[in-house]
Amino acid sequence: MSVDAAAKKPNWFSRLAHPGQFLAWSRPLVLPLAIVTALLFAVGLWFAFFNSPEDYQMGDMVRVMYIHVPNAWLSQFVYGVMAVAALGTLVWRHPLADVANKAAAPLGAVFTALALYTGSLWGRPTWGTFWEWDGRMTSTLVLLLIYLGIIALWRAFDDQLKAGRVAAIVTLVGALNIPVIKFSVDWWNTLHQPASVFTASGPKMPASILTPLLVMFFAFTLLFLTLHLVSMRTEILRRRADTMSRQAALSAGTGG
Amino acid sequence: MEHLVFIVWAYIGVAVLIAALIFYVAWNARRIAARLRALEEKGIRRRSAGSAP
Question: Touching check for B9 and chain A: CB below 8 Å?
């Protein structure tokens, strides 16, 4: 192969960047991902309710942990995905980056809302209160507001390229909140317990409780991946439909 | 089971919101696919349709 031919051949990153290529390779993934997700949820729920013990301190309230921790993890992971996508928009001008950012924001908002909801229901019997303005809970609420702000930004602009750049900048500024959430339990004296799953020395819980938690963790993470894939496909097709509508309107306006 | 009401409401809330999210994503995908089909049935095609897979 000549140097020129090699230079012209697009690498995998460039091929991935093509929305048409993305639509082609992502289509056969959706159904298998959805099936594996559903199976993991079935197994996880069976473990959560029928095959896991009470906690020696929290009793049966430990079962709320199986839905709270995965949602709390996803609230931050989805934001991480959006931050990488924001870099893709601003640094590499990757055509799929702003699509990924836009598609992930509503999903992240829902997972964050669920983390707050399940956390407050967990907190009432264990701490004696639904809500406390402590570091972890307040910074997670701020994360929800950031998600809602980014969703509003995407809807505020007609020009999606401009919206993508502004949303990318806001996403990167908002990413400063992620280490605050993570380390809030170490920096401040909070009601929220310190990390017990993602620690440097490994999980601090018995296998009988860790197993259902990990199954639910993978179920929720796969759910996000599936919904994100479908949402990205929808956003690409929506842009395609918008372009076609504009072309039709222009053709009608110029008589051809 | 201790604190049953909190556990049940936590799972119901998650189930309802996740179901709503899945429904919204699926509904949106079908809506956009239908819109695209309608445009194509009118004979409207993208200029770059020949080069795109």
Answer: yes
